[in-house]
Design goal:
Layout: H1 3-36, E1 42-48, E2 51-57, H2 70-87, E3 94-97, H3 100-122, E4 126-127, H4 133-146, E5 149-153, E6 160-164
Parallel strand pairs: 2-3
Antiparallel strand pairs: 1-2, 4-6, 5-6
Helix pairs in contact: 1-2, 3-4
Length: about 170
């Protein structure tokens, strides 16, 4: 193996080890929160797209998501801060509760595909409703996979994705 290939393998392994450590710290933090709130839930730790990804399932956890995911977003930020405090590095971990984010991902990918078809057929750009960072990323990734381009415009909380013709 060449030195460059070996370096990339070592970098990937150290990144994976760091992300797994983030996941462990985050899981401990979330277990503590669930215990304090006297809630049941199974925590699954994974690594997706070079991020630690945690999912809590089971029990009655809808109130930990909120009507539009706002409570989930807040819990994710608190968990990221707990990881940062423990490890000294900023975390980009993703948290999902009762499949809310995975369901949202599917819904947004479907929307992005529909909008892409509209943009292809009309040749006109389309501006979507305001979205949070997670939602915009899903749309951008889907649009890129389709072969079109998109950009974000505006300021939070009114930041939108605009899908552009080829």
């Amino acid at each position: 193996m060449s030195e460059k290939v070996e370096e990339k393998v070592v970098e990937k392994k150290s990144l994976l080890a760091r992300l797994e450590e983030e996941g462990d710290v985050a899981a401990d933090y979330l277990e503590g929160l669930l215990d304090i709130a006297d809630l049941d839930g199974d925590i699954d730790i994974d690594v997706e797209n070079d991020r630690a990804a945690l999912a809590i399932a089971g029990g009655k956890l809808n109130h930990l998501v909120g009507a539009r995911g706002e409570v989930l977003d807040a819990l994710q930020e608190l968990t990221r801060l707990a990881v940062q405090t423990s490890l000294g590095e900023r975390s980009r971990l993703m948290l999902d509760i009762d499949g809310f984010r995975s369901d949202k991902k599917e819904e947004l990918a479907k929307l992005a595909k529909e909008v892409a078809e509209e943009v292809k057929s009309t040749g006109e750009s389309v501006k979507l409703r305001p979205m949070n960072a997670f939602e915009r990323k899903v749309v951008h990734d889907t649009i890129q996979e389709i072969g079109l381009t998109s950009e974000s415009e505006g300021e939070d909380p009114d930041r939108c994705v605009v899908v552009l013709p080829a």
